[in-house]
Amino acid sequence: MASELSQERSRSSLDVEQLTNILDGGASVTKIRRETEAIVFSDPVFNNEDTYYLSTEEQFMRDTEKAVHFTKKINQLKPDPVQTRYLRRALNTVLPVSVHFDMFVPNLEGQANEKQKAQWLDVAKKLEIIGAYGQTEMGHGTYIRGLETTATYDSTTQEFVLNSPTLTSLKWWPGGLGHTSTHAVVIARLIIKDKDYGIHHFIVPLRDLENHKPLPGITLGDIGPKFGSFGIDNGFLKMNNVRIPRDNMLMGHAKVDPDGTYTKPSHERLSYGTMMLIRTGIVSLSADGLSRAVTIATRYSIIRRQTPAKPDGPEVKILDYVTQQHKLLPQIANAYALRMAGSLMKQFYLSSTSEISKGVLTSLPVLHATSAGLKAFSSEMACHGMEICRLACGGMGYSLASGIPYVYMTTLPAQTYEGENTVLYLQTARFLRKLYSQRLPQSQLSQDVKYLASDYPPQKTWTPRKLDHVLDADTLVEAYRQRAMRLVSRANHMTGAALAKGEDEMTAWNLASVEWVRAARAHCHLSVLQMFLTAINSATASANNQKILTALCNLFALHRIAEIGGEFQLDGYMSSNQIDMVQDQVYKLLVLIRQEAVPLVDAFDYKDELLCSVAGRYDGDVYNHLYQWALKSPRNKSEVHPAYHQYLKKLIKPPNAKL
Question: Does 268 participate in catalysis according to the annotation?
Fold first, then answer.
């Protein structure tokens, strides 16, 4: 154990195990997670050693091997959903069958009727068939209603005929579609007797279960190299008069009778259930990515030293520089905030879907708007924070050995899949605009949007007059409500002004769209702050743990105010002196949190086998392992690389040559 990390841990006043339990959602969950992770870490097939040296094709083959072995483990252990989630997380890779578990199976569970579930669910869960989710097309992604794939009903044969009528209608990007999946849930426009009924879900067989060859009318393959996630075969699908039985349309909500009679769902957004599930999960995924990156960067910032404080003294730990603290400690706070928000969002999703399953749809619009906005906000915050962590590691952050580039590459797609972030912010904004325009009393609004019933402009200014006053939780929440209220009001005013000038609704919305995105982002920031406070207030924590959690929450709120102070000063709500007080309080919080930085990231409880990082090792033995890691490079197999014999030799002159 490096002495620097030992010292950091030994002087801590925190109960790290208790913090871990809080982050996990309870001591029993921590126990399950660790036992589940141990199954993966002790299995040689799942070993993650040196995957950074694999080519993209080798990575795909390696992860396909893991996928098959993982399936055997699932069938053997029969884990519950919580254990399954931790098994997959411990694998630390995006398997070719990931979309099968994330999208295909949940679609069957949420969109199929009971007869279809009996037919498909069991074989899907055993991976006797492997499914993809065919929604995104080459020419359409987030705008689902614009999808071009068609499913035309033929009542004479009671079949749907699926076609990709244009080049842009090819399904493009679905994970596992290229060479792994045997089936897909395909999202297509339902056509009955020349009438378009919009998008619906269809189970389409893709490959022969005997030889894995594409079925007649099916053309598919891999779309080529990507920024990351090399172990998953994102693919394309083209269909030419592909016929499937009528029962292959998922009919849990909408249905088509044998004669072609169509019954619509009770609510159009019921078909978005799987998307809302994934968007909700992305909050936790984003927290996971950021917490890994900041764990690595924080530990490395203790081991890495630079420049003596005194001429004859030792070089200083770079985390002792306030500039480094100002980069990393807010990212620890952000990671804690997103972890808490992810847990509460999961609870909200489960309670809402439970109501929806009973026919109570009142929470559906809120769930749709909240999952869309927090998916965008969390992935945006996490990816920005991971880049800060990478840069904070200097040159080490550019090396795959640090582990940060890998976690960054696997988290980055969350900003565009399941809805591009700007579009999702605008979906949340439409929800805010609707509520704001209705001017409902607070009693009829949920807690996170009660501020929309307030008057604007505000009748009071921010109250803090002394430095410690800015740490009051209610005062901070009120500031974030004011900011969100102002931005919603401004965006709504811009939209209304455009409409008053005769612009149509679409044009007026577009003209104000930048302001609406800002308003939605502010609303989401407020929501996460409130969730962070709720989680802290409900946590069973020691005095020292409660103190540090409160400090992290304060830093989460105040750091952002200091960064974008102008938005809080508008309309005179905050003064420049108060912004200075906020910044001064940020510096005080950095001093407090710096003393506990290593225990705080230790509480995330990432084993070295999961971090896969030389820089973020728990024992801090960075430099020795960095050298050993470099020696394993395939290019170091021989002292003279073949490139010399083939190319360089023609340029380099021998010692006795005349120069």
Answer: no
